Amino acid sequence: MANRSIPIEIEDEHAWVFFGKNAEYYIQLWQLRRQGKILNFNISAFFAGVFWLAYRRMYFVLFLLLVVLFVEVSIEQAVLGDDRGQGTTIVINLIHASLLGLFGNAIYLWDAERKIGKVLRQQLPKEETLVRLRQAGSVSWWFLPVSISLVGAYVWLLKWLSEQPTL
Predict the structure, then answer these.
(1) Sorting pLDDT into bands at 50, 70 and 90, what band is 7?
(2) From the CB of residue 101, how many other CB atoms can be counted at a distance below 10 Å?
(3) 12 C-beta neighbours (distance < 10 Å), count
(4) Distances from the Cα of 71 to the Cα of 1, 37, 75, angstroms
(5) Would you list the domain boundaries of the chain?
(6) How many angstroms from the chain centroid is the CA of residue 115?
(7) Among positive and negative, which fits the CA dihedral 155, 69, 55, 133?
(8) How many Å apart are CA 165 and CA 153, to the nearest integer?
(9) Cα-atom radius of gyration of the chain, to the nearest Å?
(10) Are 49 and 100 contacting, i.e. CB atoms less than 8 angstroms apart?
(11) Are 145 and 136 in contact (CB under 8 A)?
């Protein structure tokens, strides 16, 4: 088993293969990150939110974010109760979106570095390494039909529950 504590040197070629068609954009951010400039705004993360995380295949980060959002909503409900207005909800959602937009690229680059390191630690032949990096860096569209199905099921459940007689 590969030792995770050994630092792995990630060459530019590895990053280019991992990032694929958006390589130029992310390599530029990668270089800025190496210089200590980690924050820049990602408009896709701002507008797509958790769907952007799923699209970028950052499932661990997505899970952590959903846990944080669940805790935040629970605290919000406990503090504000049912008295929170639509304005409060909009402001809180804008704060969530802004934070994800601001930190999205930093999170993605951290995740990319983790995934690239995992492939490189396997010490495979170069061609196999490049194939695995391309697979690890690819995006996923599975979340779209799953999300649409889940939202549809949620709406149906809410409608069904609202039609049930109260005790």
Answers:
(1) low
(2) 20
(3) 11
(4) 36, 30, 6
(5) 12-140
(6) 14
(7) negative
(8) 20
(9) 20
(10) yes
(11) no
> Cα separations (Å) of 44 from 69, 145, 149?
19, 19, 22
**Tens-digit pLDDT profile for residues 92-124:** 899 999 999 999 999 999 999 999 999 999 999
DSSP state of 135: H
The answer to whether residue 133 scores a pLDDT higher than 90 is: yes
pLDDT in tens, 13-36: 898 999 999 889 998 998 888 888
Long-range contacts (CB closer than 8 Å, 24 or more residues apart) made by 125-130: 129/14, 130/13, 130/17
3-state secondary structure 95-118: HHHHHHHHHHHHHHHHHHHHHHHH
Tens of pLDDT, residues 56-77: 999 899 999 989 988 988 888 8
Token code pair at residue 129? 């390494």
